[in-house]
Amino acid sequence: MAIPDHSFKQYDSLINWPNQENTSINILLNEYIIKQVFSRHIDHELSLYDIGFGIGSLFMMMETNLPNRFKNILLEGCEPSSRNYQHLTTRSFNRENLSVKTSDKPFLLTDIQGLFDFVSAIYVFSHMDTYQMNDVVAKIRSILKKSGQFIMAVGNEDFLNEKLAHQPDKLIKTNTITYDGKTYREIFHYSYIPKIGSIVDCNREENYYLDLFAKHEFKLDTRALINDCGFICTLLVFSK
Ligand SMILES: C[S@@+](CC[C@H](N)C(=O)[O-])C[C@H]1O[C@@H](n2cnc3c(N)ncnc32)[C@H](O)[C@@H]1O
Q1: Does residue 29 sit in helix, strand or coil?
Q2: Per-residue pLDDT band at 213 (split at 50, 70, 90)
Q3: Which domains does the chain have, with CATH numbers?
Q4: For ligand 1, atom 26, which residue shows the shortest CA distance?
Q5: Ligand 1 atom with minimal separation from the 106 CA
Q6: Ligand 1 and 11: CB distance under 6 A
C-alpha cells in the first residue's frame, strides 16, 4: 500500500488546526519543559531554536510562564506549513526583552546563524523521512552551544502499539529501517487530534532515536512519559 503524505504539507489542509489554541493539548508537555528544563537554566539569557513550531504553542507559553529572572530571551524556529507559519507570525509578543525570529522553510533548508542554549522538536520527527534523520541530528548538534540541550517529544511506543492493537484501521504500514548496522521498526499510522483532525504520522522505535543520538555523541539526560490529554508521549532530553 502506498504511504499517504506524512510531511508538513498536511497541515495546510487541516482546516481546524488553529483550534489547537482552544484545546489544552500540549499544555502539560509545554509546562513540563518550561518547569523542568528551561527554568533550570542558570543563566539570565535563554535562547531556543524550535524546529516545526506549529502555531507557536511553546513560544506563547514561554512568553507568559518563563520566570522573570530571564532578562534576554531569543525564540527562534522554523515552520514550513504556511497556515501554521502565518498563525504565529501575525501575532505579537509583548514580553520585554523577548525576541522572536522565524523561518518558513523546513529545518534542513533553513540557514541558521548563531548557537542556542536549547533546540526542540515537539512531535515533529514523525513528519520527517528516515533518510533525513542523520542530517537533522548533525544540524541540531551544529547549532547547540557547548553545554546545550536538545528536547524532543514523540508518541510513546507502548501507547501507540496498544492503540493500534485496539484500532487496527489506524495502521497504514510497518517498515524495517536500518541505522548503523541495526534494524528498527517504523510505523505509519493515522492520529486523530480532537477538534483538529486526522494526520498521518511516522513513529519509530525509541531505541532508534537513542542509538542515533548516541552516535552523534549526545548524552541522554532525561526520559519522561507525559500524558498529554490522553496521548502518552515520550519526552527525551539530550545534552551535547
Ligand atoms: C504535530 S505538529 C507540532 C507543532 C508544534 N511543535 C507543537 O508541539 O505544537 C508538527 C509540526 O512539524 C512541522 N514540520 C514537519 N516537517 C518539518 C520539517 N522538515 N521542518 C520543520 N518543521 C516541520 C509541521 O509543519 C507541523 O507544524
Answers
A1: helix
A2: very high
A3: 22-157+210-239 (3.40.50.150)
A4: 54
A5: 20
A6: yes
